Amino acid sequence: MSRFLSTMNKEAIPETFESAEQAGEFWDTHSAADYADQMTEVEVEVDIRRRTYLVPVADRIYKLARRRAEDTHCSVEDVINKTLERELDRDSI
């Protein structure tokens, strides 16, 4: 009975959210199951063109990359990928 009452007094889904964070906060505190009557089914096609591999990196290498990322205002991932690409391209010449 309490579940029935809570769905009758549920907050309406906002038409739009100002940010992804605001949408996340809403859905963190609300169940999509309570809003099934307001949702429409959609078909989505996904074309994955990029693949990511998880490779262990030594602690020292990670710390060096993190320091460079902070200095250049980019991500550690970008630093490691660019460094490896540059080094591997040089070896292929």
Textual characterization of the structure:
- Helix 3 (59-72) packs across helix 4 (76-91).
- The protein is elongated, with a radius of gyration of 23 Å.
- 49% of the residues lie in helices and 0% in strands.
- The chain has 2 domains: 2-38, no CATH class; 59-91.
- The longest helix has 16 residues, at 76-91.
- The chain has 4 helices and no strands.
- The protein has helices at 2-8, 20-28, 59-72, 76-91.
- With 93 residues, the protein is mainly alpha-helical.
Distance between the termini: 72 Å
Share in β-strands: under 5%
Q: Indicate the radius of gyration in whole angstroms.
A: 23 Å
**Quick one: overall form?**
elongated
pLDDT averaged over residues: 87
Write down how many β-strands occur, each being a DSSP E stretch of 2 or more residues: 0
Into which percent range does the helicity of residues fall? 40-55%
Largest sheet: none
Unreliable parts: 1-6
Order of helices and strands: HHHH
Domain count: the total is 2
Task: Give the helix tally.
Answer: 4
Helix/strand structural class: mainly alpha
Record the SSE blueprint.
Blueprint lengths: L1 H7 L11 H9 L30 H14 L3 H16 L2
In short:
The protein has about 90 residues and is mainly alpha-helical. Helix content is about 50%, strand content about 0%.
Task: Record keyword descriptors for this entry.
disordered N terminus; 93 residues; single chain; 2 domains; mainly alpha; elongated
